[in-house]
């Protein structure tokens, strides 16, 4: 039987579906309606991003005018641009992505880990909740690349302002008083492979070759290969053989392979170094602006790769042949993320990444993120965390609980001086620096028992909010990614605590009614 619909409706649901995403979206909209001051901050970030793009286009037009002096008819159509003065205002042009859309997808990126991979794009296109949120406000789903560019234009200062506003809402609704916090750190993997000397050296030198060949294929530079392709292939094969060496004789076999690899790298790097010096000395003014920018980018990337190859080779010499312990700050650990470090935390598995510290409130909200470059000691960030929480919620926390990694007499005295009434360190070191009467008090015992809550928080963040491995590279980009995930977690936590309090109030009301 054939059915003909005179008024087809392509929507499966006429109302917003009852789902976790719908609750999440409703809370985001209610939050941004309460805090209208946040949208101008996002607009200011987008304006700054637009001005940077405009300045880049102005420099390209100015360069085009300089390299095309023989075409006055064409140049008359190119607007004037002062290379020394950056544009200060944006003119009317293509419609800007609304700040509300940027805000919504900024938090959804924190909740779902990405807005640009294939799974995320398909999810957003199929979700009726997204359509129900955007359509009533005259908004539509943006394209993938435009969305990523605009989200990345938002500064960390704006993300911090969103987190501050969240916590102020919690105070206003009395969801938490933030008088108790628990602090701990965790190891988070960077978006990079675990360091391997042979692989780092081979991949760095391979990248230096590729950048040169890319420039030659585009007609920007000219040179002859010579023995370089053969040396490159030899180094790659030697790195593979080093990594696959097994058995009792593996150490001596690796030393021989390392020696051959270093000799081949020295032969390859000598002509490449001279070639890069020659290319940098050449005048590129004859090239079009786009080719100039492309030439400079590839040359810089190639030189950086050549420097990394030298670092990796020097690292191999010191470690394998001189039997030196190379200091961490002198090691080449990653080609993708220069800010990543080896995180050594107790007896746990060493990871390449970052060591963020999180401060959890009594009701389970994250009130602060402490993130520095390297494998920072916990004891060095405790006071800064207490000060940050104080500035964010407007009052010094009365009780601070943490583990033995933060324990020191200096930290204890500094925390008490700031106004903390009770600070507890779980562990032998904390017991040693804490007066016996205070250590054995019922209040201190209760606080130490609650310290495991922050361990649970770490597990929830890693399993539910993609906190175990970062997608972005670089300290500030990683900080931005972590802040987005923290804000998204707090949204879910607000919904949970609010529902719990409403249920408790309802049960109390029923109990009083039954008693009466």
From TrEMBL:
Gene Ontology molecular function terms on file: DNA binding; transposase activity
Could you give a single Gene Ontology term from the biological process aspect? DNA transposition
Matches recorded under InterPro entries: Transposase_11
- Domain Transposase IS4-like: start-end pairs: 362-490
Q: Which domain of life is it from?
A: Bacteria
Protein name (database record)? IS5 family transposase
Task: Identify the species of origin.
Answer: Oligosphaera ethanolica
